[in-house]
Amino acid sequence: MEFRHPLKIPAVDNGKLKEDDPLIRAIEAKDLETVRFLIETNDKYKPRIQEDPELLITAVSRENVELVELLIHHGANVNAKSQEGPTPLSQAVALNNIEMTRLLISKGADLKNDTESLILAVEWDSKDVVEILLQNGANPNARGQGVEFAIFAKGFERCINKLHRGRTALHLAADWNQEETLRLLLAYGADVDRKTLNGHPAGTPLFIAVSKDRVDIVRVLLESDAVMDAYDFERAADHAATLRRWHILEIFLDFFFNKPEISLESGIYHHPIVKRSILADHPQPSKLRRHLFKAHAAEVKVPTNLKPLINDIAVSYPEEYDACTLEIQPLKTQYIGDSDVTFFQLLVADLNSLAVLARNDSISSGLELAVKEKKFPFYGSILTSQLRKGVARRDLMERGIALSPRLVPDFQLPDLVVERVLQYLSNKDINAFIGACSLRK
């Protein structure tokens, strides 16, 4: 969807030009020939073009590339800021004008110190503009701080709130459910764990995604190493439980199934809402109850403080507990598709091993068939989550390998060596590496 900015370009009235000035009227009318005639026949206009930012910004707002080029040719400053706030670039971005954005960047628009344009591009859901800005050095972690962020936003009051909380482009992409833009920002080094300015624990993109029930965004952020330790997991899981986002809480537990120090050491199962729910016979919370069964049956470390809870629910649901335990044997003996990998090996594989497994099409198709046939009703969602993690890791590794020659063009390492180096990095670090490589032409 294309959005047009709601701002009426203010009349230029700063003591140098008046609203009824012929040059202003010609620019507003997009009358290129008259503008050219006035500049070439009257010397008083050239200093004004060089000194007054409103002229170029007005020309940009009229979306006339030739007119903008003419003013820049005669000395208009592409980085000048108007009294009202916008720069020529932020004006072009707010209009979602790709051609104008490219022109201003080619003429020297400063992206490194620009704190608004990228956020505006995300606010307008302009993925193409976001990519152009990132490719040319925009800071993916810039916070909206200028007046124009509030002026151009879809809702003035809402945007003032965002401005107060100091959100970055990644926060907005999570809020607006823009998965492709979010992936793009992460690929250029956006900090997946960046908090808002007030440092509130719920100020990360992940907490926003949980609050808005953005399931796909939650998965992408997890795959990019959001929520790395037990403390952060506890806060995020607690947030999901408080909002009764059971399906998101299940995603957390499935994602960290083979990291018991994160998924089970935390006290989430003693959260009042969770504890009451897993002991009750409700469809969604019952999945959390089964998670404890699955962890215990698969011999994932279960903390001592959770064993009484497992015993309680095992007594209350003996058939469910036994069925979960019986599922382990076929997991260990059945191979996935035509591969020589068992389902259990996929279940317990580490991240780099998952990336290798994700390259095997037989594993992907075999797992899809097994899940479709509900061969593993208890462990199917975890197996799917494991393969998703592997695919995300594989794609990151492949992109990192492909872009690595840009970092040191005169010294190219073999792909196998680069892959081995990348295996020591987290997904978050590989994203940062890719971002650094992407900025090198």
TrEMBL record:
The keyword Repeat applies. SUPFAM superfamilies: Ankyrin repeat. Keywords: ANK repeat, Repeat. GO terms for cellular component: cytoplasm. It comes from the Eukaryota. It holds the Pfam family Ank_2. InterPro entries: Ankyrin_rpt, Ankyrin_rpt-contain_sf. PANTHER family: ANKYRIN REPEAT AND PROTEIN KINASE DOMAIN-CONTAINING PROTEIN, ANKYRIN REPEAT-CONTAINING PROTEIN-RELATED. This is Ankyrin repeat protein. It comes from Bemisia tabaci.
